[in-house]
Amino acid sequence: MLRPYQATALALASVICFSLPSPAQSAKLEQKRSGPLSFSASLPGKAKNFVEQNLISVNQLRAPRKAINLLVKADEYLRRNDLQKAKDLASRALDVYPEYAQALTLRGTVELQNKDFDRATDDVQHAIDQDPHSATAYFVMAAIFNSQSRYREAALESDRALAIAPGAWQGYFEASRAALGLGDFANALRYGTQASSLCPDFYPTRVVLAESYLGLKHYSQAAEAFRAYLKIDPNSDTAARVRTVLARLPATALADNAK
């Protein structure tokens, strides 16, 4: 099976960055530190492609300003794909606040990119232990399991993430990867379609959709999804593998499905 949709720094950076507090939220956090804890503050309505009901947790509220600033810088380096700098800054944030779930999750994300699955699992599990309502941590744990072909465990973590954040495309993307790995092509297509509708610019989803169509023997739809991917990302290693798959699709099957 073609597996070009392993978790990428780009994908996971989008998970992390939407979970960090915006400047407006940071101001609210400062206000809340001196008052009663609140579980009702949500991301701004324009935080596209993430869940509106993402809550500011007690774990976040307890984070010292120094740790928050270090984590914001770590997130910036993660978006630039400077993984070592991102990891170093996340570790510094954890020196300040060892229980900081978001910093643990970000460091686990970097470790996932480096294929250090044991450390990634340890960090993200620690994040979940500290903040059991962090959908982001469950997304990343699902990605860790998917990257190791542990699809049943990935499906479980995706379910947990979506129970917390039912409007988050990342959960549907990881659920689609897990279903595809399990050979459940109908659900892979269903989850992948949902992820694509919530975040149409995340092009790896198109490959998941294409493989789902292949599994269902819907060859014309598979070819269409593969070609859509090639228009966006024509020069990658994944693109070369996609072209190989396209060349092997039977012309008669494509013609039959096009009718």
Quick description:
This protein is mainly alpha-helical and 259 residues long. The protein contains 15 helices and no strands. It has helices spanning 9-19, 23-33, 58-61, 65-79, 83-96, 101-113, 117-130, 135-147, 151-164, 169-181, 185-198, 204-215, 219-232, 237-248, 251-258.
Describe the structure.
By secondary structure, this protein is mostly helical. The protein has a domain at 9-153: Serine Threonine Protein Phosphatase 5, Tetratricopeptide repeat (Alpha Horseshoe), CATH 1.25.40.10. It has helices at residues 9-19, 23-33, 58-61, 65-79, 83-96, 101-113, 117-130, 135-147, 151-164, 169-181, 185-198, 204-215, 219-232, 237-248, 251-258. Helix 5 (83-96) runs antiparallel to helix 6 (101-113). It is elongated, with a radius of gyration of 19 Å. The model is unreliable at 3-10 and 17-54 (pLDDT under 50).
Question: Care to count the β-strands?
Answer: 0
Instruction: Determine the N-to-C terminus distance.
Output: 27 Å
Report the order of strands and helices. Answer: HHHHHHHHHHHHHHH
What is the 3D form? elongated
CATH-assigned homologous superfamily of the domain at 9-153: Tetratricopeptide repeat domain
How many alpha or pi helices?
15
Q: What level of helicity do the residues show?
A: over 70%
Q: Over all CA atoms, what is the radius of gyration?
A: 19 Å
CATH topology of the domain at 9-153, what is it called? Serine Threonine Protein Phosphatase 5, Tetratricopeptide repeat
Largest sheet: none
Low-confidence stretches: 3-10, 17-54
CATH architecture of the domain at 9-153: Alpha Horseshoe
CATH top-level class of the domain at 9-153: Mainly Alpha
By secondary-structure content and strand pairing, the structural class works out as mainly alpha
Mean pLDDT: 80
Percentage of β-strand residues: under 5%
